Amino acid sequence: MSAAASDPASEGSVAKLIAMAEKPTPGQRLISWASRPPGRLYIPACTVAGLVLLYEDSVPGGHLPSFLIGVGAGLLLAGMGALRLGIALAVARPMIRYYWLRWVSAPIIAALALGLSVADVPLQARVDASADDLLALAGEVEDPTTIPRNGEWTGLYPLLSVGSSVGTGEEISYFAIDGAGLLSQSGLAHSPEEIPEGVFVPGHGSKVYEHVSGDWYVWVDH
Question: What is d(CA 126, CA 146) in angstroms, rounded to the nearest whole number?
Fold first, then answer.
């Protein structure tokens, strides 16, 4: 081992040079962060936010906790992505071209989640998967009885209650779903006869309906 390598004075000089080195400013740190492509945390976070919003859309009338979490996380991630992309376009365009797949991953995830939600695919798929179990349960209910379920699962939904009533000459089955509805109680209804949508229907109380598929409707209690 050389004397220079073990010289305390030499080691002290190196330490002084490191201490004297100028620390990066917040702006330089921001540019350095934005110049790197989206990594292992950002893209999975976008995926999780998209899945949360798809779950929210699969609940009749929406699901308030997942709506708040999904929208809040989505807005935060979108803001971070826009800031990062804007800075990268100004100072690191070659990095965008080289890592283009990483940069387009988040917008693709957002577009896919939005498209599925607009088409009501999560809700229709969850209702279709639960339809046989829900109808079997409804067959055990005598009009106009309402049976509490206390959150027990039937199909893919936890039910608060199940009931039936005679509407316009046809029996309608109602399923109140635990946690469904953003501001008001919501659930599913099954009716062989068409129910008017978006209006209060005489004899149906304060319920407003929206068609899902087949004989299935979402109801929201206003």
Answer: 23
